[in-house]
Each structure stands twice: as C-alpha cells, then as structure tokens.
Amino acid sequence: MIGVTGAPRNGAYPMNADAATRSTAARAMLWWILWAGMTAGLVAIDYAMRQVPETVPAARSVGMDALALADLLVSVLARWWMLPRVRRVQSAFVLFGVGLALAEAGGLFGVFAGAHRNALVVLGMAGLLQWMPLFARRFAAPAPGAPPAATA
C-alpha cells in the first residue's frame, strides 16, 4: 500500500544495482571508520595519560585487572564464537559495536586503574585488532546476476 508521500508504507523502496552497491560501500566505510576511531582513541588516550605525571599514588588494583580481562574475554568470545553464527547484517553490526566497546574498555581499564598497565593496553589493542572489519565482506550484497550464496 502506498502512503501519502508516495512511498510504500512498509519502508521498502525499490533499489537498483547501483544504489545497492553504494549502500554496501557506505556500510563498509562506516564499519571501518568506527573501528579506526576506537583503535586510534585507545592509542591517543594511552599516549596522553603517559605524558601526565601522577601526583598521587594511583589506586591501581588487581581487581581492575580481572575486570579488564573479563571484558576482553567476552569480546573475544563474541568475535570468534558468536559473530560467525550471525546471518543478518544489522545483528552483526550491533555485535561489532559491543565487541569493540568491550575490547576498548579492557585497554582503558589498564590505562586508568589496572595494576598491569602495559599488558592490559597491549591486550586491548589485540582485542581491537581482532575486530578489524575484514569479515564484513560476507554481508555484502551479491553482484547482480550472481547465484545466491548457499546457506548452511
């Protein structure tokens, strides 16, 4: 059924192959921008905090290390156990955002409160590197005329 504006009410718009390609490229660009921003943010915050002298002895604790490691563990499980099972691009994008946030949180706990600062920042960077959106290609729209991908 057509609404007042002439657009279908269910939100489905006819899309040609060129528009689908642009949409896929824009989506891939968004994933890369988010990943690069989060990664650069962790590096910048770590660098900036190393330049500031600590005036008061830091209350760094092993408990914060455990919390950071738990965040990193959940991020790793989300990346390698949950993400391969996701079929919809919207669900994958949400999981991508949550996984990035958890990996960065692990690194930030190291910067601000962890007893083993360097190790947690390196693990946080490794956690962010595993989320590099190279996997997003499998969510790309198929080329016009290409046979549909087999679903397992």
Please supply descriptive tags for the structure shown above.
mainly alpha; 4 helices; 62% helix
Structure, described:
With about 150 residues, the protein is mostly helical. It has one domain (about 25-50, about 60-140). The chain is about 60% helix and about 0% strand. It has helices at about 15-50, 60-80, 90-110, 115-130. α1 runs parallel beside α3 (about 90-110) and α2 packs antiparallel against α3 (about 90-110).
- Low-confidence regions: none
Largest sheet: none
Order of helices and strands, N to C? HHHH
- Give the count of helical stretches: 4
Radius of gyration, rounded? 21 Å
Quaternary structure annotation? single chain
**Into which percent range does the helicity of residues fall?**
55-70%
Distance between the termini: 35 Å
Shape designation: elongated
What is the fold's blueprint, element by element?
Blueprint: H1 17-51, H2 62-82, H3 89-112, H4 117-130
Helix pairs in contact: 1-3, 1-4, 2-3, 2-4, 3-4
Can you describe this structure in just a few lines?
This protein has 152 residues and is mainly alpha-helical. It is built from 4 helices and no strands.
